[in-house]
Design a protein that fits this description.
This protein is α/β, with parallel strands linked by helices and 243 residues long. It is built from eight helices and nine strands. It is 45% helix and 16% strand. Helix 1 crosses helix 8 and helix 3 runs parallel beside helix 5. The protein starts with 7 loop residues before the first strand and ends in a 7-residue tail after the last strand.
Length: 243
């Protein structure tokens, strides 16, 4: 498949996990794929540019650099995100602001910088990475779940704002995915093997979601085969939603 031939795709958080799998898949399908990340070290064919999604100047400079180097911007995958654990009492205000700044405001910030370029593309699409945490009512994930609920709502609002201009906005909602992030979570657990088994058991299909499976869903929503799809949040969760 080469449905992204000639297109330029930007993936925030594209140097690790779901973002890296997505950038690689889009590149394999013909895109010039650029990872915007705090740590942009990536291997060819993915390109890396440093950006902090909490810093407006950094985001603008990175998007400008993408367009200067590669000539256009067609696909934005708003994927950078950070985790937070605990119930509603666990985190002080500044941590709430920090996580919401990365996970929610960061998506608006990058979209703001990218939209003038997306408007010039005949194949424009934005895909936001939400989470099953927004729907499932997971214990000890109050702040993170709130941030991803905001991502889902933001996706619907952005879809309504831009669909008539030919820019489709959708989201994916992964279940627990096997990425370096979850690896770090397991490493910090008292019994990593038991914790991994508990996370696997939480998925109705009995295993973690793979980063490649999420990347496949993102590529679908970013590409021409989803040309009539806007404002959708696609679960990639092993059947967790609604069970
Ligand atoms: P990861 O930790 O492997 O990768 C996240 C990337 O985002 C890292 O490369 C990191 O440097 C980058 N990043 C973090 N803060 C940034 C900032 N301020 N500016 C630019 N880049 C920044 O994580 P993973 O698991 O690949 O997660 C990616 C997305 O998927 C996140 O939005 C996360 O909330 C979401 N997600 C992950 C799930 C999982 O189980 N791994 C499940 C559901 C959603």
């Amino acid at each position: 498949m080469s449905e992204f031939e000639g297109l330029v795709a930007v993936v925030t958080g594209g140097a690790s996990g779901i973002g890296l799998a997505t950038a690689r898949l889009l590149a394999a399908r013909g895109a010039t794929a650029v990872a915007l990340d705090l740590d942009p070290r990536v291997e060819p064919p993915v390109h890396g540019i440093r950006a902090d999604v909490t810093d407006d100047a950094s985001v603008r400079a990175a998007v400008d650099e993408v367009v200067e180097r590669f000539g256009r911007l067609d696909v934005l995958v708003n994927n950078a995100g950070v985790g937070a654990q605990g119930d509603v009492t666990a985190n002080p205000d500044d941590e709430w602001h920090r996580v919401l700044d990365v996970n929610v405001v960061g998506m608006a910030r990058v979209a703001r910088a990218a939209l003038p370029h997306l408007r010039r593309s005949p194949s424009a699409a934005i895909v936001n990475t939400g989470s099953i945490a927004a729907w499932a009512g997971l214990p000890q994930r109050a702040l993170y779940s709130a941030s991803k609920g905001a991502v889902h709502a933001l996706t619907l609002a952005m879809a309504a704002d831009y669909v008539r201009e030919g820019i489709r906005v959708n989201a994916v909602a992964p279940g627990t995915a096997d990425t370096p992030w979850v690896g770090r979570l397991l490493d910090s657990a008292p019994d990593p093997a038991a914790e991994r088994a508990a996370l696997e058991a939480r998925q109705p299909h009995g295993r973690l979601v793979s980063a490649d499976e999420v990347a496949g869903a993102i590529a679908y929503l970013a590409g021409p085969l989803s040309g009539s799809t806007a404002g959708t949040v696609l679960a990639v969760d092993g059947g967790m939603q609604g069970l």
